[in-house]
Amino acid sequence: MKKQRELRVDLGDRSYPIVIGEGLLKQPNLLTPFIFGQQVLVVTNETIAPLYLESIMAGLSSYQVESVVLPDGEKYKNLETLNTIFDTLLSKKHNRTTTLIALGGGVIGDMTGFAAACYQRGVNFIQLPTTLLAQVDSSVGGKTAVNHPMGKNMIGAFYQPQCVIADTGTLNTLDDRQLRAGLAEVIKYGLIADAPFFNWLEENINHLLDRDPEALAYAIERSCENKAKVVSLDEREGGVRAILNLGHTFGHAIETYQSYKDWLHGEAVSVGMVMAAKLSNALGWIPENDVSRTKELLLKCELPVSAPKDMSAEKFLELMSVDKKVLDGSLRLVLLKSIGHAVVTSDFDPNCLNTLLESRVPEG
Amino acid sequence: MKKQRELRVDLGDRSYPIVIGEGLLKQPNLLTPFIFGQQVLVVTNETIAPLYLESIMAGLSSYQVESVVLPDGEKYKNLETLNTIFDTLLSKKHNRTTTLIALGGGVIGDMTGFAAACYQRGVNFIQLPTTLLAQVDSSVGGKTAVNHPMGKNMIGAFYQPQCVIADTGTLNTLDDRQLRAGLAEVIKYGLIADAPFFNWLEENINHLLDRDPEALAYAIERSCENKAKVVSLDEREGGVRAILNLGHTFGHAIETYQSYKDWLHGEAVSVGMVMAAKLSNALGWIPENDVSRTKELLLKCELPVSAPKDMSAEKFLELMSVDKKVLDGSLRLVLLKSIGHAVVTSDFDPNCLNTLLESRVPEG
Questions:
Q1: Residue pLDDT, tens place only, A248-295
Q2: Distance in angstroms (rounded) separating the CA atoms of residues A12 and B189
Q3: Which residues are CB-neighbours of A151 under 8 A, at least 6 positions away?
Q4: N or C: chain B end with fewer CB closer than 10 Å?
């Protein structure tokens, strides 16, 4: 029996546990304390379904349990796909006491959470994240949403799950590209709030890439600790929570630009973090060496560090102008004061941003 | 200057005022204290727009103000129409500090409120109800939603406005059918919680039908008082709030049955209240005379009191089985213990319900 790690997101009466460990999906007794009615809907996608759906459903056979299998990919994270979840809930007559279970990566978690927030004005839900990105980031903190053609995550809700159960065993079946995209978000926590963790990552990145179970479990736990701390301080992103979006303003613009098709979210965030680091350096806030360390760590994960070549500075600025951090027309960015210390600010020289966006040359 | 009435919905930090009076839409200074950013989107429909939109927009000219004009009718209250609100918000680059203003009846209020709940995970909104139904019911209490082909108001959120401003002058341009549909909800408050008001309505219904301004203002204020009291006790409908749904379980089934097309919401609720009264009588809870009083008052308003002839008992039961008050398979109904005292209960003889649904004969 492997060690099981547990931590807690403190949000008053909306607090919930995060459980991390290998083989947790095979333990339905972990789920049942968080199911309060007689009905359950498991939402997953066509990649995950063949791997885990049958055993999850079997473990819940004492309930009225149904499943919805969605197509896989960020480009399906929209209102139309969301509606197929409502179709199933209604045709199977699920009522207000139903529980939705998100079995999958960030897209499944975001959509299932938003469906739970809206169905009959709010029902119970549980996160079973099966990708590194979902385990370290998207399943924790209650941000749910779908995309709009004009902007990522523009339609959504803050809606907390009853619990998050992260089975690290699922990472064994994750393809390399997905694992690396998840590492981008892991590295993010080091950059924004945890310099010792960034140092640890520099030393241990090869263990993570080799999928060493102990190293992965540690990185997931440490990432969740960082996220839980920030979310507890600012559930609805009135302030400090926005630092969790390091690299995301640039990254979302890239994802929207290519219609959520070619790049994984973590890949776009990787580029975005390098751009944020470069801008922080151009502003004189961090030394060139910190930019290099950031880039080097991401490159070791074979993550992209420069934006699509055909994406112009004008396009960046246009797409960034609908970012959720924009306040009364003024663009706010998450930038670095040092490795381990991010700030959200509109107090930067816009010329530095323009220079950065215009100076992009193929690299890395 | 006519008398201006003001009351308050008490919900802690989500409390807000309801202002009732004639000519309020011509006073933009009533709105501006509740607009916190620089951007405003007015959502209305093609019936209301020609009457009030221009003057509202003019009063807000110091903001970046846009409008969306939706088609008129319950059948457009769906995810597709909702998305056109998001299209405008994004194409005009509205950010998290924007304010949505619902200018119209219940459909516009429900959709605008839900759009505000979801856009960028929640922005500010204001209700300017222009129908009697919206002024006495739907604009107050924070229930927002769109319909699904399989069930009314199945996709939504509890999301409170910053204020409700009910200009009774708008009722002068309301057609008779809409006015009467609104009176169904007014009568509802008498039935569920306010016997003296029911008596007043029996005596004054002709003044209301004649659109006597003082009588209407009094009925609106008294209705809002009743609603605000119940909502303050139970914002998210964990219990007592469900009594506000007297007649709605039957009524929603009728609306869904005819695809939200032919009947107005208040008309379906009128039939539903008669059915609830009849069932309460069949259970021995209220005397036959209370059923007659209820029916008579509704008939004076020329409201329907019997369900569509072609709608079978089976269809009723099927459509009612997805009602939001269903808990773990058990149908709950709002029934009457007396005029002025409603209860939410699953504790009724299902045979009485079946007899009621099967015995319906054309009447009224």
A1: 999 999 999 999 888 999 999 999 999 999 999 999 999 999 999 999
A2: 35
A3: A252, A256, A319, A322, A323, B90
A4: N
Q: Which of B103, B105, B50, B49 is nearest to B77 (CA)?
A: B105
ipTM: 0.93
Domain annotation covers residue A188: yes
Residue A363 lies in a domain: no
Task: Let me know whether A241 and A341 are in one domain.
Answer: yes
> Does residue A198 share a domain with residue A165?
no
Helix axes of B265-282 and B350-358: crossing angle, nearest 10 degrees = 130
Same domain, A221 and A107: no
Number of domains in chain B: 2
Selected for mutation to probe chain B from A118, A158, A234 (highest B CB count within 10 Å) is A118
Q: Tell me which DSSP letter residue B323 carries.
A: -
Catalytic residue among B180, B252, B293, B324: B252
The predicted structure's pLDDT at residue A360: 66
Query: Is B149 within the bounds of a domain?
Result: yes
* Residue owning tokens 């959200």: A344
Sheet holding B124-129, edge to edge: B5-9, B16-21, B164-167, B124-129, B99-104, B39-45, B64-70
Q: Are residues A186 and A297 in the same domain?
A: yes
Measured in whole angstroms, how far is the alpha carbon of residue B157 from the centre of its chain? 15
Same domain flag for B66 and B81: yes
Distance in Å, alpha carbon of A208 to nearest chain B alpha carbon: 34
Residues spanned by the domain of A261:
176-358
Q: Which of B77, B241, B324, B332 is catalytic?
A: B241
Alpha-carbon span A68 to A41, nearest angstrom: 7
Mean pLDDT within B197-223: 97
Q: What is the pLDDT of residues B271-306, one digit of tens each?
A: 999 999 999 999 999 999 999 999 999 999 999 999
**How do residues A112-147 score in pLDDT, each as one tens digit?**
999 999 999 999 999 999 999 999 999 999 999 999
- β-pair partners for A19: A6, A165
pLDDT band, very low/low/confident/very high, at B50 (cuts 50, 70, 90): very high
Instruction: Please tell me whether residues B13 and B62 are part of one structural domain.
Output: yes
Q: Name the residue of chain B whose CA is nearest to A149's CA.
A: B87
